[in-house]
Amino acid sequence: MKALIYQGPGRRTWTEVPDPRPVEATDAVVRVDAVTICGTDLHILKGDVPAVQPRTVLGHEAVGTVTATGTAVTTVKRGDRVLVSCISACGRCRYCRTAAYGQCLGGGGWILGHRIDGTQAEYVRVPFADTSTHILPDGVSDEAALMLADILPTAYEVGVLNGRVRPGDTVVIVGAGPIGLAAITTAQLFTPGHIVVVDPAPARLEAAKRLGADVVVGAGDDPADAVAELTKGLGADVAIEAVGIPETFELCTRLVRPCGHVANVGVHGRPATLHLEDLWIRDLTITTGLVDTSSTPALLDMVAAGRLDPTGFITHRFALDDMPAAYDTFADPASTGALKVVLTRCSGQG
């Protein structure tokens, strides 16, 4: 089969590799029917995630069809159409038993495209298939389900739920990439008073307005002024960091009001300064987190019921064999306007 291989910082190849097969009794092999690229994959390619070894197949989001299962798999079978979660869960360890699957001690957590071969391939081996895949309801498209593999639960859990968004809150989201846009979508489930989005890219601010932002702040504008005007000088109740650079994290700590909440979602590749000399007196709560995907079943139910439509994040579509072009497009959003790219299997492929 073909797969996208990480060859070390700055280097990737779309090349032939051996087909996967079940290794453990709890494994399944899934034919990848739809896959996407995550900002975390770009961080890996920059060398920001040193745990990823060269020759690893990248990717941790996919929708596909089960082609083989290990002898212990009981909840999915050959032919089932499934969502492959970005987080794998052993289901038995101390963390999994409290739905903190991202911290799994039994060999799970974020492993696909990180510690083992991932989903940007024609087939993928999925460990702990019973607890790491979700059978898709009829009527939920591959594209809609694919957005639930990572960005929707990440924005919802690490941003909106960790940030304790409540009705009437002023919520500032710094970064209007896919995660930031997903935070706009899922924050609206809690009827905040205002959603303010900060991003320098006009195309992304347009997408933010389309998806529900009340106020957008672009390059050259002062987000502190915009927030102060909305809140009579108090500051935001919740600031969600959705970029992953020191400047945006520090901006969130300045935009949030005393007794407010900063929810960091972005993946940081270098240190950010925590200005405790200013923050200690403001009674702030700062949270970080890796998604657990415990919310995926509920989000999937909302998509199936027509309450959520995550396909609005998708801007570009490619055939699976066009993986290099998809990476080039996704990695240059300023020129391409890319948000989420989707790659699908061509008929007759594999």
Give me some keywords for this one.
7-stranded mixed beta sheet, 350 residues, 16 strands, globular
Secondary-structure map:
Blueprint: E1 2-6, E2 12-16, E3 28-36, H1 39-46, E4 56-57, E5 62-69, E6 81-84, E7 123-126, H2 129-132, E8 133-135, H3 142-146, H4 151-161, E9 170-174, H5 178-187, E10 194-198, H6 202-211, E11 215-217, H7 223-231, E12 236-241, H8 246-255, E13 256-264, H9 276-279, E14 285-287, H10 296-304, E15 314-319, H11 323-330, H12 333-336, E16 340-344
How many whole angstroms does the radius of gyration measure? 20 Å
N-C termini distance: 8 Å
Task: Estimate the global geometry from the Cα principal axes.
Answer: globular
Taking all residues together, what is the mean pLDDT? 96
How many helices? The count is: 12
Order of helices and strands: EEEHEEEEHEHHEHEHEHEHEHEHEHHE
Main beta sheet: 7 strands, mixed
Question: Which structural class do you get from the secondary structure elements?
Answer: alpha/beta
How much helicity do the residues have?
25-40%
Number of beta strands:
16
Beta percentage is 15-25%
Which regions are unreliable across 5 or more consecutive residues at pLDDT < 50? Answer: none
